[in-house]
Every structure is written in C-alpha cells, then in structure tokens.
Amino acid sequence: MKSTILKTASSYLLPILLLFSVFILLRGHYYPGGGFVGGLVAAIAFVLHSFTHGTENTLKLLRTHPGSLIPVGLGLSTLSMLAPLFSDLPVMTGLWFEEPVPVIGMIGSALFFDLGVYFLVVGIVLTILFTISVYSE
Amino acid sequence: MLIAVLAGLIISILFIPLGKYFKGRLSVTIALLPIGLFLYFLSFVPQIADGKTFSFHYDWIPSLGVNFDFYLDGLALLFVMLITGIGSLVFLYASPYLKGHKYLDRFYGYLSLFMASMVGLVLSDNVLLLFIFWELTSISSFFLIGFNNEQADSRKSAMIALGITGGGGFLLMAGLVLMGYLSGTYSIQAMLTSAAMLKGHALYGLILFFVFAGAFTKSAQFPFHFWLPGAMKAPTPVSAYLHSATMVKAGVYILARLFPVLGGTDYWTYPLVIVGGFTMLYAAFHSIFRTDLKGVLAYSTIAALGILVFLIGIGTKESLLAASAFVLVHALYKAALFLMTGVIDHETGTRDITRLAGLRKVMMPLAIAGLLAALSSAGLPSTFGFIGKDLIYEATLHTQGIWSMVLTALALITNVLLLYAGFLAGIKPFSGKLPEEYSHVHLPHWLMWAPPLLLGILGLVFGCFPFLIDNSLVNPAARAIANARIDASLKLWHGFNIILLLSGITLFLGTLLYLFRKPTAKGMAELARFDRFSPQTIFAKSALWTQQVATWYSNIMLNGYLRVYLRRIIVFAVLLLGYKLIVGGHIYIDWSKVSSVDIYDVVVLGILIGAIVLTVVTPSRLTAIVAMSVVGYCICLFFVFYSAPDLAITQFTIDTLTVVLFVLVLFRLPPFLNLANKRAKTIDGIVAGSFGIVISLIALQVLNGPVNHEVSEFYGDNAYKLAKGKNVVNVILVDFRGIDTMFEIVVLGIAAIGVYSLLKLRLKPSEKE
Q: Is residue B397 one of the residues assigned to a domain?
C-alpha cells in the first residue's frame, strides 16, 4: 500500500500495539483480556506492518518464521500444565509465587499457560496470513 | 517381568533412530533380545513344573481397570518358550536371508514389535491388556506381510489379513468386555470364580460367539482361513515365525486360556469340534493339491490349527493334553519346514515342487533337517510327532458313544493327508535326480541351515526322550487349560493297542499316497473351478461392493462445491432443530423476560440491517467483505451492551483479522461474476431465512426454561478463592477448564500447519496429474 501516512504510522504503531498486547495479556487474570486476545492484538500489529512494508520486510523484522512460535507456545503451555507433577500435585493445579511482583502482580502457572497461548496465537495467525499472502502474490 | 515384556517394543522404537547401524553385520546381534528372553523364561521352568504360578502387577490406568497384570503358568510358559525360542532362530536366520536388504532394520523393528506383543499377549491376565497386545500382533503382522511393499500382491494380502484379523479382534473385544462386565473383573484368574455364573447367563451364547469369532479369524479357521495362504507373501522367516509357529496360534491360545472360564458346555464343544474338524479336513485336502512349497505348508498349517481347535473343543483331559503337546510338535516341525523352504527359495529361486528334486546332493544338512521334520510331521515312531499323534488318537477314541468313531476317522484322514503334505515339503525336493539347472546351487550361510536342522533334531530328541518335556512344559500347560490336575507322562511306547494300530495305518496310507501320487499343476487347475464358491471370492466381492457403494455415496455427497456442502449442512440443521421445536411442544415466547430495548440498541440494529442488505446486493467483493465486518462489529457492540467484554474484544480482533484474510485471498480474484441465477438465489434466501428463524425461535424458547445458576455461581464464588483471579472468564479458560484450552490450542496449531503445508506444497508440473 502506498499511503505514506499509514506507513509512517504503522512503524510507530507496531511497538505500541505490541506493548498493548502484553498489557492485555497480563491484566487478563483480573480484568477483560488474556492470552488469546493479547495474541490476536500482537498478530494484528504485525499484519498492519506487513500491509505497509510488505510481508518480506515483516518476516525480516521477526527474524524467525512465525511458525516456530507454535511449538514455543505449545511447549510453554504444556510445561505449565505439567509443572505441578513435579511437586506431586495433579496436572493443571495452579502454582503461585508467594509475593506479588511489581507491575505484573501475582505470578503463577496460569500466567505461563496464558503466555503459551499468546505465543501460539501469534504464531498461527501470522503463519496462516503470511502463507496466504505470499501464495496469493 | 515388565521389562521382559516391553523390551521388544522399546527395541523397535530405538530402531527408528538407531536402525541404520544395524543393517550390516551387526544385524545378527539383535538376536540377543529373543535369546535373552528365552533364557529368562527358561529359568521359570523348574518352578512351573512344580505347579507354581507367578503373578505380576504394575499400575497403568487403574481408574479404567487396565493394568499390567501378568500371569505366568504352564500354558503361558509353553507359548512364551515357543515365541522366544523359535524367535531366536528366526532372528538369526533372517540376518543372512535378507542380507543387504535396504529395509533390514525396519524388518527387525517389526519383528521385535511382533515378538513383544506376542509375549505380552500370552502373559496378560487383564483381558483389556490382552486385547491391546492381540491387536498389536495383527498390526505388526500387517507390516510384515506387506514387507515387500513394491508388490501389489503383498499389499493386497496384507490388507486382507489385517481386515480379517482386525475384524475378528473387534468382536473379541466385545466378548472380553462382556465377560468383564458380567463378572465384575477384568482379570482372567478372577473370572474363574464366576465361571459357573457366566455359563448360566443369558448372554453366554453371545460371549461365545464373540470369542469364537476372534479365535477363528486369528487362527485361520474356515471360512476365514484364506488370509493365511495369502500371508505367505511375507518373507519366509516371517511365515515360519508368525504364520505357523506363533501368531496364528494366538486364537488357539485364547480358546485354551478361556477354557476354564467358558468351556466344557455343549455350546462350547459343538461349534469348535465342527469348525475345527471341517477346517482340518478341508485344509488337509487342499494342501495336497498345491505345487508351491509355501502353499502346501500354509494349508497344512491351517489343518493343524483345525486339529488344535478340534481338540480344545472336545475338552476332555486327554484332548487338552494332546492339544498342549501338539502345539509344541507342530511348531517344531512346521517352523523347520518353513525355514528349509526359505533356504531352497533363496538358493534356487523357485518353490515349485514339480521342478525341485535331488537337492540333497548339494545341501546335505538341509536335507537332513527336511527329513527329520517330515518324519516328525508324519508321526514316525521315535519322533516327537509320533507322541503327538498318539495323544490325538487317544483323545478322539476316549470320547463318548458313536462320536468316538466319527472323530477318530476324521483325525485319521487328516493325518494321512498331512503326512503326505509333510513328505511333499520335507522329502520331495531332496530326493531323486538333481536337475542340471540346480547343480551350481550351494549351501548358504550356516545361520540359514542350522536353525531348521536344530528344530528337526529337537523333534527327534523330544521323541526319544519325552521325559525332557512332559513334566516341564506339556503337563503344566494342559493343567493350566483344564484347571485340574493332569499327570500323564508322555511315553514313546504304549504297547500294542488300537492307538498303535491307528498310527500304523496312518503311516501306511500316507506313504502309499506319497509313492503313487505325483504333484502336478493339473490338480490346482481342477480345484480352481470351485473358486467361485470359496469364502475368499465372497470376501473379495463384498469388499468390492462396499467400495462401490462408498464411491457412489461420496460422489453424491461430496461433489466439491463448498456452497452445496454449506447448504446441505444448514438445511439438515434446520430440519432437525425445527422438528425438535415442533415436537417439543407449543412454541411460546415470554415477552416479559425479554429485556427492554434502548435507543442505542435500535441504532446499532439499524446499522446491522443496513450492512446485511448491502452485503447481499453489492456487486463488489470488497464492499461485501467490509459490510460483513460491519455486521461483526455491530455484534461486538451488543456484547459490550450486555456486559460480555471478553467476548467483545475477542470478536473484535477476530473480525479484524478475518477481513484481512478475506482481502488477502480475494484481492487477486476478478470482480464479481454473476454466476447465480434467480432460482439459486431464491433457494439460498429461503435456506438462510429459515435458519435465522429457527435459531431465533430457539433463543427465545430458551428463556422459558428454568435457569440453573449453579455452575456459574460456583465459578463466580471460587474464581478468586481457588485460582486467585478476578476475571472469571479468563480463570475458566486458563485454570478450571485449562485442559480444554490446551487441546484447543493444539487443534489451532494443527490447523496452522495444515494451511501452511497445503499452500506450500506446490507440486512440480511433472508431478501434477
């Protein structure tokens, strides 16, 4: 797309939207939000960038193929699901740190589970969209 | 014990990464696995002989009643010794036999898998575990039969074998589950206490039907026998191992194992005696018309299996003892004959009996092996086969009334024919004049001729010194089947009596037959005329019909037009839901429960309707997409109005992405072509309208029902207490129903990989059809 305004804006919007997506992810436990929506927002940020700068440039920016985020996300979620097994608790038991961390708040296995969902969603959305966009070119 | 059972499975898994190192000379070392297992189980022999049994328990899925429960008694020991013993020889034999084969590692992987599942099968006490191993044997057999997967014949035979044994396994599972359900336990040993209850139960007949179906398909009883000759497409070591000595006896094993629980009634005896008796006659008769060595052996194997089923059917102590002994007798001589056939095939390149002769001059040790095996199969005195045959005659003679004559006559005819088949396979290729074309044939690697020779010699040794095995293997096995004390000592010499006379007659008639009847291809041709009525033809026909019906159905239902699929799915849903609405009583809408309408509701609704109309009438694709997204955003707004913010954000982002996706795909397509005519549009309109009406009616109907708040209250109350989260929706997603989410994201990942691989897989022009 040839719009200069959009192109300039998207360069600035990308980090802001990514930050926003992390914000949505973190607040998910107390307010509307969560890993799924956060992941979608992050994906939209990259899609917007690819619209104005071209898919190749966005892929360069990502450094790795977005598909590699899928196993990362799945692995993270699986690990946080199985983590309680190490302390002899049933699968999916919520494990929490005693003290809240500044800014983020309480950290527990649920947050890592959500983080896995976040990465996975970014991975699949970008994989599907970029594959299709490369294909249709 | 668990390690012993699972060792083969572990080895076969390790072969996936490490197999390439075992393709060459190292392949022989894999035989250490069966040899080790053989020695391990050998150490149990003295204690089992004393009447001890061993139970092993390891938890697996206790909540479902599926556990690694192993039970080692005489019956299991007899089979496990056969499996590991003959397995050792076959593992050694296969190394030179398939030397240089490019998938040798794969072959050993399948073979280990098979051996492990067979060992597991005979040791399992838990019927569900037994069933799992049972299926594993079918599956590994499928891979082994189809090992030469470049040949269409091999693939087809493998399919047939899997179809028949798999179908039988399915029925067997029904029988086993029924037994477990009625007796309240899945342990066979525990079922013994409810044997009387099971035999008297109304469902007893059904259980027997299922169990017999499983056993008959696996052990190739008429009319399911035809997969076994087909399975001879496998490499010969496999035929020797799976399709004569071990796997096909799994059906016999399950009958023997369940005999104390289910056996001894008329419902048990008659079907088994009739099917077993018919199979043994039918197959023995067929075996003498074959000219392919493996064909002869395949049919004589079916006959031998028939004898075993027949003996278990009779169910007297004598017959069960005879069955235990005959399992061993048959495994020894038949494996020897098969291995010998493999050598002949390997060296001369043919298995045609009419062409093979005089090979003793070039392969003396093999000729001795063949002779010993043939004599054992003939039941010549001083061979183990003689003892086996004696026991069979003793069993048939000691049945009640006039049946004893009939059964003995049946056994006599079968034995005569089997003797002929044994001579044909074991003696014919080695006797007479050596044809010119085979004069250059030489003896192969010693690992190929030593195993059959060893088996042949064992047959002779056990025949001359039966005390070696009577108390250690055969008696405990018979005891386990009968669940009673049996202390017959096997004897070579019973004195002059009617049994000896019968053995003599068998030998005499069989030898006469061998001397006067020469195998020709003509007999085969004569027999082929009856092929039209054979079960194989019927099976093949019905498979063809199934395929035709499936093709016809697919052509109608799956015509490749997405719009047709969608229309069908929606029409079906409308009909089903509409029917339920009408049948479910009068349609009543309680307007008082519908919330009041605000001004912003009306505004958004107006936009929504406008967008929908625009979507339908616009001539441009992009406009339609944008209008659709307006519809989506309006729905998001409704979510916001009715306090579902989580849903709203998700819907909002998803809608955005959907538009992007559509644009990416449709951007390059030509502008709208008006392909739909008025009629199609009308139909689509009616379908869409009625679907909308039905869904709206259901949504309004739901308001009438009593609302149960229990679940939502639980989540609301406990979200913070148990999961430390204030956003209930999110807590449900990541904590309460986290496993659901887990699987959903797995599905998402699979979908992404699917899209990626579908689009990335651009076939080269040469690969396109």
A: yes
Last residue of a domain, one of B605, B638, B669: B669
Closest CA to A26 of A125, A120, A108, A95: A108
* Shared domain check, B296 and B158: no
Q: How far apart are CA B379 and CA B419, in angstroms?
A: 8
The domain in which residue A21 lies consists of 4-136
Q: What is the pLDDT of residue B407?
A: 84
Which DSSP helix (H) or strand (E) runs through B617? helix B599-617
Lowest mean pLDDT among B51-55, B78-82, B112-116, B532-536: B532-536
B721 touches chain A (CB under 8 A): no
Residue A131: the pLDDT is 84
In terms of domains, do B344 and B214 share one?
no
**Quick check: B752 and A70 CB within 8 A?**
yes
Rounded Cα distance between B149 and B110, Å, is: 14
B350 with B285, same domain: the answer is: yes
Residue-wise over B386-406: b if at least 16 C-beta within 10 A, else e?
Answer: bbbbbbbbbbbbebeeeeeee
Extended strands (E) in B455-614 = none
Our count of domains for chain A comes to: 1
Q: Rounded distance, CA B375 to CA B460, Å? A: 9
- Same domain assignment for residues B643 and B721: no
pLDDT reported for residue B630: 92
Exposure letters B322-337 (e unless 16+ CB within 10 A, then b): bbbbbbbbbbbbbbbb
CB contact under 8 A, B734 and A113: yes
Cα–Cα distance for residue pair B714/B724, rounded to 1 Å: 14
* B146 lies in some domain: yes
Q: What is the ipTM of this complex?
A: 0.87
Mean pLDDT value across residues B366-390: 83
Looking at the fold, whether B5 and B140 belong to one and the same domain comes out as yes
HSE, CB side, 13 Å, CA atoms: give it for residue B475: 21
B752 and B625 in one domain? no
Rg (CA), chain A: 17
B739 contacts in A (CB within 8 Å)? Answer: 81, 91-92
Residues forming a β-bridge with B606: none
A74 shares contact with chain B (CB less than 8 Å): yes
- Give the mean pLDDT of chain B: 83
What residues 2-21 of chain A have any CB closer than 8 A to a CB of chain B? none
Q: What is the Rg, in whole angstroms, of the alpha carbon atoms belonging to chain B?
A: 34
B313 and B457 in a common domain? yes
Contact of B139 with B77, CB cutoff 8 Å: no
* pTM, full prediction: 0.72
CB proximity A128 to B under 8 Å: yes
Contact A110/B725, CB-based, under 8 Å? yes
Containing structural domain, residue B69: 1-219
What is the rounded distance in angstroms from the CA atom of residue B94 to the CA atom of residue B447? 9
Backbone φ, ψ for residue B51 (5° rounding): 95, 10
DSSP B340: H
Total domains, chain B = 4
Indicate if B459 and B373 belong to the same structural domain.
yes
Task: Give the span between the Cα atoms of A95 and B723, in whole angstroms.
Answer: 9
Burial degree of B441 (CB within 10 A; 0-12, 13-18, 19+): middle
Going B625 to B628 to B634 to B639, the CA torsion angle's sign is negative
Residues B556-589: pLDDT tens digits?
Answer: 888 878 888 888 899 999 999 888 888 876 777 7
> Is B564 domain-assigned?
no
Give residues with Cβ within 8 angstroms of B641, minimum separation 6.
B598, B600, B601, B604
Interface touch B657/A47, C-beta < 8 Å: yes
Distance CA B37, CA B39 (A): 5
The verdict on residue B676 lying in a domain is: no
